[in-house]
Structures are given as structure tokens and as C-alpha cells.
UniProtKB/TrEMBL annotation:
Residues 1-289 form the DUF6734 domain. This is DUF6734 domain-containing protein. It comes from the Bacteria. InterPro entries: DUF6734. Pfam families: DUF6734 (PF20508).
């Protein structure tokens, strides 16, 4: 199994995070944590997997490869193709990365840190995700706006909502599998959803719809096609309690995902930086020096 990570830099170039869905500095309270997150994530995946690939743009290549010198085994620099899209559509970078895969894969966000290899049964699944998301209110809020404002809504979404009497989605911190035909249809439909509604984007908070066309759509199509999804984690609540327990690494906890709510907590950022200093001091000091000399 190969690991894929992706970085479309444009969403990170906003001057500040105004909305909860914004991705300035990758969503972190300070840029140093963003850089350290990418370093620790890549290095930990390389510890357990021979193939850890990156899909990025020219700015991402300069940052992660030229400056941070992260040891990705292969780099695809094609996300500049997305730069005509609105920067708040940050999930499109991941959608594009899924779309170009030619063999089974697991895509992992740059804020995930593993301390053991995934189980074979998980890796070999037709479709995989980090966890199911059911009863998460932000989907209802986002979808209500979509129903009111957008010209095109995939029937997968409306039918899924009706059949489940609500929205059930997945968390795409981890997303992948062996069913490449599924990913072809899924990513085509995601881009179709965005492209057909470009003229309506100014009427909504754009960032809120990313979870709809990435996470809800994934689950809805899988349901329609009756494809089982293998979830890595169970019983994850709306607050994602326990997913950033750096103090229990590596003896007790083996998996960390600093979802958005954690990135806004400076204490979590400090725990992350201490982990990088402990495990990879050379990379920690490289990042500190690059920041001090205004190179990143």
C-alpha cells in the first residue's frame, strides 16, 4: 500500500482565518506549527511505509521539498491547475489527488501522525475512511444553504439524506482503497458539483461546503453502490475527543489527527513541536532556522 499526501498552497495564503473553515497556515494558529505538522506527518509515514508520495503545486514543492527537504518517494506537481478556483475550496486539492491515482492508495492529511503501520485488513479494503460522521450539525447547515442557493445538487446527496433521514458522511483525514473505478466517478462528480455552481459561490460561506462534496458525497455514492467502507476509528464524537493526545505517544496512543478545533489551540501546537524536537531534532531546528531567516 502506498501513502499519498497533498498540498494545494493557495488556500493557505489568506492573511488570516476569519471563518472556522479557513485554512490560513493550514488552519494552525502559527505558521511554525503548520510546517512542523507536515514534517512530522511525512517522517512518521516514511517510518512505516516505503512509498509516501506527494501531490502538490509549485509553491508546495518549494516549501516541502526544496526547503524542508522532506523525504517523499515521488512528487507530482500538478495542483497549479486548480489556481483558478476560489481558495476556500480547499478540499479540491485532495479531490484532484484522489483522481490521478492508478493503484490502491491511502490519502492522509498533513496533520495525521502514525506510530504503527495500518493493519493489512484495513489497507486491503475496497474503500477506507478515518471514521463515520453521523449527527454532525455542520452538514445540515451547509446543505441547507446548498439547497437554497445552488443550481445543481447530485442526486446521490438528496437520495442519501432522504433514505437516512439526515446526513451521514465520512471523515477524510484518511481516505482511499482499491476501488479506482469508484474514485473516478466520485471525483468527477465532486468537480461537477463545484463547476456547475461557481456562479453561486458568492452567496454562501464557501468553506462550509468542502465537507459536503468531499465527505458526504463519498459516503452517499458508496451507499448507492452498496460498497462497504472500512473505518479506521470507531465512536468518534462531534468534538473529536482524544484524537490529539500527544502526551500518550507512543506507548498508549498510536494515531493522532489534529483536526481543525485542535489547530486553534496553541498548547496542542506546542505538544506537536516538542514531539518533532524529540523524534526528529534536525528537522525541528531546520524549520526554526528557516523561519528566523525569513525563508519560509
Amino acid at each position: 500500500m502506498k501513502i499519498i499526501q497533498s498540498l494545494w498552497v493557495k488556500p493557505s495564503l489568506k492573511k488570516e482565518n476569519i471563518n472556522i473553515s479557513d485554512r490560513n497556515n493550514g488552519g494552525w494558529v502559527d505558521k511554525k506549527y503548520n510546517y512542523m505538522s507536515w514534517a512530522l506527518s511525512c517522517l512518521q509515514f516514511k517510518k512505516y511505509y516505503n512509498e509516501v508520495e506527494l501531490v502538490t503545486d509549485s509553491l508546495g514543492y518549494d516549501l516541502l521539498i526544496n526547503k524542508l527537504e522532506l523525504p517523499y518517494t515521488k512528487v507530482d506537481v500538478s495542483l497549479d491547475l486548480l489556481n483558478d478556483y476560489h481558495p476556500d475550496l480547499w478540499a479540491l486539492g485532495k479531490i484532484y489527488a484522489y483522481s490521478i491515482q492508478k493503484e490502491p492508495f491511502i490519502h492522509a492529511d498533513g496533520d495525521i501522525f502514525i506510530y504503527k503501520k495500518f493493519e493489512d485488513s484495513f489497507e486491503n479494503s475496497q474503500l477506507i475512511s478515518q471514521n463515520i460522521e453521523k449527527g454532525f450539525g455542520y452538514y445540515d447547515e451547509a446543505f441547507k444553504l446548498i439547497e437554497e442557493k445552488f443550481d445543481y445538487i447530485p442526486t446521490y446527496l438528496t437520495e442519501s439524506k432522504i433514505e437516512n433521514n439526515g446526513i451521514i458522511a465520512v471523515n477524510a483525514g484518511l481516505l482511499g482503497g482499491s476501488d479506482l473505478d469508484f474514485f473516478k466517478e466520485y471525483t468527477d462528480e465532486a468537480f461537477k458539483f463545484v463547476d456547475k455552481n461557481v456562479s453561486k459561490l458568492h452567496e454562501i460561506n464557501i468553506g462550509t461546503i468542502n465537507t459536503v462534496y468531499e465527505q458526504f458525497l463519498f459516503k452517499a455514492i458508496a451507499e448507492k453502490k452498496k460498497i462497504d467502507i472500512n473505518y479506521y476509528l470507531e465512536n468518534i464524537n462531534y468534538s473529536f475527543d482524544g484524537l490529539a493526545d500527544f502526551t500518550s505517544l507512543p506507548e498508549k496512543e498510536k494515531y493522532i489527527h489534529t483536526v481543525g478545533i485542535y489547530k486553534r489551540n496553541e498548547y496542542i501546537g506546542d505538544l506537536l513541536s516538542h514531539r518533532l524536537l524529540t523524534d526528529y531534532p534536525d528537522y525541528y531546528y531546520k524549520i526554526i532556522n528557516l523561519i528566523r531567516t525569513n525563508q519560509i
